[in-house]
Amino acid sequence: MPLPSDIGLSDLRAFVAVARHRSFRQAADALGTSRSALSHALSGLEQRLGVRLLHRTTRSVAPTEAGSELLGRLEPILRQLDDALEAISHGPDELVGTLRINANEGGARWLLRHVVPAFHARHPRVVLDLVTEGKLVDIVAEGFDAGVRLLEAVPQDMIAVPFGGPTRFVAVASPDYVATHGRPATPDDLKRHRCIRQRLPSGKSYRWEFSQAGQEIAVDVPGTLSLDNTRLMIEAAIAGQGIAFVPQPFAQDALEAQSLLLLLADWSPPIEGLCLYYAGHRHVPKTLKAFVQAVRNP
Questions:
Q1: What is the DSSP string of 119-186?
Q2: Is the whole model's pTM more than 0.70, yes or no?
Q3: Domain 169-267 sits in which CATH superfamily?
């Protein structure tokens, strides 16, 4: 069945913006229009197509099954169109557009230090929208061009570009805490210590994972303090509140200053570190290709 002839590109962009942001307010801000105008445009689009594209409540907006299918088909088409228009308007070597990247805090810090300055010096018209959050998200469903996570957490159907080298998670505590409570000799000893627990986005507490000579141990540590931010965990450990389990790069300055001591080092071998990942089966915009190159050659 042919599509109605009165469906314009602006209607389709409006739908993609709302479905991607899952918010009329955020989509309206991104498009520079009003929420009422956007809502009217989407209602008209649904009416002309004869299908509901969005579930709307007073608190949330989400694509329907038909909306999700349309979003998946539209996004690569609109990206290709934007690339074509940018190439004509600004020349083949000048990149323009927005690159949305979802990252954990450690990955964002590394990119800001080692990649972003040089990338922006070469491509000053590219807007980097770097979103940091603790939870793992579906970068395609959430409208991100790429994500940053530990390599072991990346879905197998994604293209991964490692950076920063191997890393490891380490147990650390202040000298005062160790002087008072002693050093744990094995991960099992942590059950008799005061630990600073990490609360995951799901609400559950993270089980500390250790490995030595092929033996792997996951410990549900005790503690009276739970935090969901690595920097706060380190500050609490420096203040003597207990033992924290954090990525070593976050604690390195405190370790070198001896405000924190490294514990159970033999049980914390290096693991594969961070990577930039993206969906290779979809159209890869020129801005992302350029950013990937910058990550490969920081």
A1: HHHH-TTEEEEEEE-SS---TTTTT-SEEEEEGGGS-TTSEEEE-S--B-EEEEE-HHHHHHH---SS
A2: no
A3: Periplasmic binding protein-like II (3.40.190.10)
